[in-house]
Design goal:
single chain; 574 residues; alpha+beta; four-stranded antiparallel beta sheet; 19 helices; 11 strands; 58% helix
Length: 574
């Protein structure tokens, strides 16, 4: 590829830059820049699956322990081990099949919803969305997951029971056996659930804060109340710079005169798009050795920058007099001034390029504050602005600032453009704030925050349910103990403390392990965050407070039930 690019450079006498080419796998083109996001979402889904399996496994374990006497009776009456295993496998397959079927239906609906949330114009630039939905691969993966879940549900009681020790099962009390197992294992499983919930909640919190920071990043202009329309002028009508410049003036003037329009301007490309197209420049009067100084290039009308409410730092904005009959002028942003004119006033300096073998020189007449021309999550690049009247751009974008809702102005703009010339191509009518909110960077962060937030919410619910199950089951197994305590004079408050203390220790253990794991996980995902520290203390504190309060709230009902125990009834039940 290097030889081909060098041959093309010699063939077409390209001297202003070095051409180069490279070959990359198609998979890199499709998912290369979002692979880390996809891996993060897969990890979140895996953690959610793990916490669900732990939750279901613990419930199955308790249920199987409560059936210990039943299984022992079956074995004593002649049921073989294979018969009992088939029973557990059948129950596991039924539960896993029903759960997986419901999950597939919900997943299909959610994928369809996500597909509708992506703007049609953006979907073409996001090839990784092609084919998203139910297909052979996703169904096969769901089937494999269901099979694993069925194996978990079936093997948990099978491995627990020893069918040879039927006599032990007949002599042991159901409650004593189950209570002993639960105290050894059940509480540990709940700690695992809470730890995983902390990890997912921390990830959701970090993504939520990252999305907020991304959508509130300084733009360098006021995006509110700006209506935009893309316009294409027919080459057959507007053949030269003079005719095209006259069209620019007519559009800007007639749109600005509309009721409710404060000002209007034209640009070759709207901000918050991409750092393209670019221009290779050199500074006139400085030594030049063929280096390529790449900057963004924009062509704008005289009123465009003031319509954006861009801040003029030095010099002046363009005027209608800056047309093809006058010397070339340019406005630069502060990023360009800092990079190429450090410690020097750029006003009056000249920049040039020789692209296409046609040298051009422009004098810098103004410096504006940085406008975010590229994506929201990319650093602001050096940018140069040229008067659109000194070019013959056939395609451009109209931006009009309204004193009211920008969306209400869009039909009016389209009608006025049709009146100016019915042959004008008009497309992509949208408010600038809406356009910014649906850029690829914003959509990716938003979808990631939504999905991880959904995972975290589900994990929180499962964790709280797990805590409730542990405490409720523990209370049911300790009914006699609580009855004896109350018969000996224990107050209701002491029973509350007894139950809530157990929930508190489980919650503290889960939080400690989860926060420790969250620090490591957050460091791994720091490349996906925008202006947020991986160990953000606010997020960690909020997660700890949320999970702690939810766990205590889930434990309150069992504690209240325990405190309301009638000692006489409790002792009589035993």
């Amino acid at each position: 590829m290097r030889m081909i690019s060098e041959q093309l450079q010699r063939q077409y006498a390209i001297t202003w830059r070095d051409l180069n080419a490279s070959v990359i796998p198609y998979s890199e083109v499709v998912v290369g820049h979002i692979r880390s996001i996809l891996l993060m979402l897969l990890s979140g889904a895996s953690l959610l699956l793990l916490i669900a399996c732990v939750n279901v496994g613990s419930l199955v374990l308790v249920r199987s322990e409560s059936r210990r006497r039943e299984i022992a009776v079956r074995g004593a009456l002649g049921a073989t081990t294979a018969r009992l295993v088939r029973q557990f496998v059948t129950e596991g397959l039924l539960l896993a099949g029903l759960g997986s079927g419901a999950g597939i239906i919900v997943a299909a609906a959610l994928m369809r919803l996500l597909a509708h949330l992506v703007p049609k114009g953006m979907a073409s630039g996001m090839p990784f969305l092609n084919g998203v939905g139910l297909n052979a691969h996703t169904v096969a993966f769901a089937g494999a997951t269901a099979l694993l879940a069925a194996l978990l549900l079936a093997t948990t009681p099978v491995l627990r029971f020893s069918f040879q020790r039927v006599r032990d099962g007949l002599t042991d009390g159901d409650r004593g056996a189950a209570s002993g197992l639960w105290r050894r294992l059940g509480a540990n499983l709940v700690v695992v659930e809470l730890a995983i919930a902390v990890v997912l909640l921390t990830g959701a919190g970090l993504f939520g804060r990252s999305l907020y920071r991304l959508l509130h990043v300084p733009l360098g202009f006021d995006a509110n109340h700006l209506a935009t329309v893309e316009v294409a002028a027919p080459d057959s009508v507007y053949k030269g710079k003079e005719q095209t410049a006259e069209l620019y003036r007519e559009i800007a003037q007639r749109i600005a005169s509309l009721p409710g329009v404060e000002s209007a301007g034209l640009t070759s490309r709207l901000p918050v798009g991409c750092n393209c197209p670019t221009d290779g420049i050199r500074i006139v009067g400085r030594p030049y050795h063929g280096e390529h100084n790449e900057v963004n290039e924009r062509h704008v009308s005289a009123s465009y920058l003031s319509t954006l409410k861009a801040t003029l730092m030095r010099g002046r904005f363009f005027t209608e007099a800056d047309d093809a009959s006058h010397p070339g002028v340019a406005i630069i942003n502060q990023a360009l001034a800092r990079k190429f004119f450090p410690g020097v006033d750029p006003i009056g300096q000249n920049i040039a390029d020789d692209e296409g073998g046609l040298p051009s020189v422009w004098q810098i007449v103004g410096v504006i504050d940085d406008i975010r021309e590229g994506p929201l999550d990319v650093d602001i690049a050096p940018t140069e602005y040229f008067p659109i009247n000194q070019t013959d751009e056939p395609s451009f974008t109209l931006a009009a600032r309204s004193s009211q809702d920008a969306n209400a102005l869009l039909p009016v703009l389209v009608r006025m453009l049709r009146q100016i010339n019915p042959d004008l191509g008009v497309s992509n009518e949208v408010s600038l704030s809406e356009k910014i909110g649906t850029t690829q960077a914003a959509m990716l962060h938003r979808f990631s925050a939504w999905l991880v937030g959904g995972f975290a919410t589900t994990a929180l619910i499962l964790g709280v349910v797990g805590v409730y199950g542990v405490i409720a089951y523990s209370v049911s197994q300790r009914t006699r103990e609580i009855g004896v305590r109350m018969a000996l004079g224990a107050q209701r408050s002491s029973v509350y403390r007894l139950v809530l203390r157990q929930a508190g220790w489980l919650t503290l253990a889960g939080l400690a392990i989860g926060l420790f794991c969250s620090l490591g996980t957050s460091i791994l995902m720091r490349s996906l965050l925008f202006s947020v520290y991986a160990w953000d203390p606010v997020t960690l504190l909020c997660v700890a407070a949320l999970l702690g309060l939810a766990s205590i709230a889930a434990s309150f009902l069992p504690a209240r039930r325990a405190a309301s125990t009638d000692p006489v009834e409790a002792l009589r039940a035993e």
